[in-house]
Automatic annotation (TrEMBL):
Iron-sulfur subunit of the cytochrome bc1 complex, an essential component of the respiratory electron transport chain required for ATP synthesis. The bc1 complex catalyzes the oxidation of menaquinol and the reduction of cytochrome c in the respiratory chain. The bc1 complex operates through a Q-cycle mechanism that couples electron transfer to generation of the proton gradient that drives ATP synthesis. GO terms for cellular component: membrane. This is Cytochrome bc1 complex Rieske iron-sulfur subunit. Pfam families: Rieske (PF00355). It comes from the Bacteria. Its cofactor is [2Fe-2S] cluster. Transmembrane segments: none annotated. Keywords: 2Fe-2S, Disulfide bond, Iron, Iron-sulfur, Metal-binding. Residues 19-92 form the Rieske domain. One of its GO terms (molecular function) is 2 iron, 2 sulfur cluster binding.
Length: 93
């Protein structure tokens, strides 16, 4: 289990560093998950603000909706991961 879904706020997200996954909630009740490893130089992304996943190393930003690049230097999207949210808990499939 990654953790309680209550840890992932709407329009925000949470990075699970050990599991290397970032979970977002761009729409209330709809959770998304992506690898947390930046496609630029493989730093781990640091935070999610206003539906943007932000890498602290060089400032790349990715969409919290689909993982696409919103701002470089990264050029490749974050790959999606599959999660299950049930009974208030998030599990990586
Ligand atoms: S490693 Fe993420 S922006 Fe460079």
């Amino acid at each position: 289990m990654l953790g309680p879904s209550a840890d992932v706020a709407v329009h925000s997200g949470k990075v699970y560093t050990t599991e290397q996954v970032v979970v977002t909630q761009p729409v209330a009740g709809s959770f998304k998950a992506f690898t947390s490893i930046c496609t630029h130089k493989q730093c781990q992304v640091g935070s999610v603000e206003n539906d943007q996943i932000i890498c602290p190393c060089h400032g790349s930003r990715y969409s919290a909706v689909d993982g696409s690049v919103l701002k470089g230097p990264a050029t490749l999207p974050l790959a999606p991961k599959t999660i299950t949210v049930a009974a208030g808990k998030i599990t990586l499939d």
